[in-house]
């Protein structure tokens, strides 16, 4: 079974949703961080979603001055003074940015090109470095392992990309890759060689309200026989802790590192089996894994990414999806905390949520369906 281009575009939309939602974990890395050599005046567009709060807290710990620009819908408590400007890019309201200057602007939530155009018209010439958080879903072809930043991008084929809105995007998930690619183009148009484009893979960890990664620590914590994907668990998976991505983004701002970077992890090919056994190491229930091949899961209508989160088949059209090259980002200082830390912190965060939130895991196969598929696998004759 291989994931089709349509399937992979759907994955990208889920990734976008995760980047725009979430709350900060109590275990987030506000840690002891050395002061930066030169304090920066940083504007963060968004800043209160999933990765944004980690950026804010790490930047404050490094001694930077922070201004946030968003709709003001998700107030946060910060450990130091943060200036907060209110506007709404979905309606073109960026007036609060006019007449201001910053050393760096980090654009977290944008998925439609006119959002970049609008801030570009205001900030070009008033910002020394523009960092756009994009996605690996901009690539047109996921079949080739080792895809680097030069890979062909998805193309928009509609009437006018500048008239597309977030609502039309959510109604048509196939637009996600092309619209992110179009947003990158607007960033380069307005900010030229002072632009950094970061293309993350699956962003995970405490605060992820989609539960795409959280499903696995939670399921393994329950113990018993766990349905797991791929014949022997050898298919690769890639992911990045939101805190690693956020902290590296701030360090890229400090270094004035321009250009385009794929940003997922870890810095070796991690199999789905390695991920699952690594997660099991932080639990005490002794879960046992039954690995089932992709074609059987397909026959049972068990979907990659949705029912079996994080994973897509490592063959066919999706052979390269979890084999993206991150050599350039690693050379630029991208680092990774241990998988065990991400898994343990995710569990701690989830169990700190209200009871009604804990009652529903938003991703992954349902327990009764998992039991049915395991029984069918054993009875295959």
Q: Could you describe the 3D structure shown?
A:
- It is a single chain.
- With 381 residues, the chain is an alpha/beta fold.
- The chain has a single domain (5-368), classed as 3-Layer(aba) Sandwich (Rossmann fold).
- The chain is built from 13 helices and 13 strands.
- It has helices at 5-20, 52-61, 113-123, 166-171, 176-191, 215-222, 242-255, 272-280, 294-299, 327-331, 339-351, 355-358, 367-378, and strands at 41-45, 65-70, 83-86, 104-107, 130-133, 195-200, 203-204, 225-229, 236-237, 240-241, 259-263, 270-271, 288-292.
- It has a seven-stranded parallel beta sheet, with helices on both faces. It has a two-stranded parallel sheet with strand order 7-10.
- The protein is globular, with a radius of gyration of 20 Å.
Brief characterization of the structure:
The protein is an alpha/beta fold and 381 residues long.
């Amino acid at each position: 079974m291989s994931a089709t281009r349509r399937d992979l575009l759907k994955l990208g939309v889920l990734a976008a949703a995760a980047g725009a939602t979430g709350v900060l974990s109590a275990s987030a890395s506000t840690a002891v961080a050395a002061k930066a050599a030169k304090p920066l005046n940083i504007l963060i567009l968004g800043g209160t979603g999933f990765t944004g709060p980690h950026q804010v807290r790490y930047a404050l710990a490094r001694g930077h001055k922070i201004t946030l620009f968003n709709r003001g819908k998700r107030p946060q408590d910060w450990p130091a003074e943060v200036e907060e400007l209110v506007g709404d890019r979905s309606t073109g309201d960026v007036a609060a940015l006019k007449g201001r200057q910053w050393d760096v602007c980090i654009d977290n939530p944008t998925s439609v090109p006119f959002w970049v155009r609008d801030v570009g018209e205001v900030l070009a010439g008033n910002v020394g470095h523009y960092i756009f958080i994009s996605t690996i879903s901009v690539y047109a072809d996921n079949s080739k392992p080792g895809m680097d930043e030069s890979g062909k991008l998805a193309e928009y084929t509609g009437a006018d990309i500048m008239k597309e809105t977030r609502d039309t995007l959510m109604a048509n998930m196939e637009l996600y890759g092309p619209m992110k690619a179009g947003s990158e183009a607007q960033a380069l148009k307005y900010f030229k060689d002072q632009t950094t484009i970061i293309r993350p893979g699956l962003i995970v960890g405490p605060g992820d309200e989609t539960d795409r990664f959280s499903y696995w620590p939670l399921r393994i914590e329950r113990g018993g026989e766990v349905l797991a994907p791929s014949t022997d668990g050898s298919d690769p998976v890639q992911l990045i802790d939101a805190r690693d991505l956020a902290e590296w983004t701030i360090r890229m701002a400090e270094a004035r590192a321009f250009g385009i970077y794929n940003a997922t992890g870890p810095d070796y090919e991690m199999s789905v089996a390695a991920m699952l056994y690594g997660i099991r190491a932080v639990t005490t229930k002794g879960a046992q894994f039954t690995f089932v091949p992709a074609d059987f899961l397909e026959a049972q209508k068990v979907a990659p990414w949705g029912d079996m989160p994080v994973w897509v088949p490592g063959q066919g059209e999706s052979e390269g999806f979890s084999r993206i090259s991150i050599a350039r980002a690693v050379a630029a200082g991208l680092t990774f905390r241990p998988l065990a830390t991400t898994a343990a912190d995710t569990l701690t965060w989830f169990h700190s949520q209200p009871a009604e939130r804990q009652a529903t895991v938003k991703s992954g196969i349902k327990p009764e369906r998992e039991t049915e598929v395991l029984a069918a696998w054993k009875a295959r004759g």
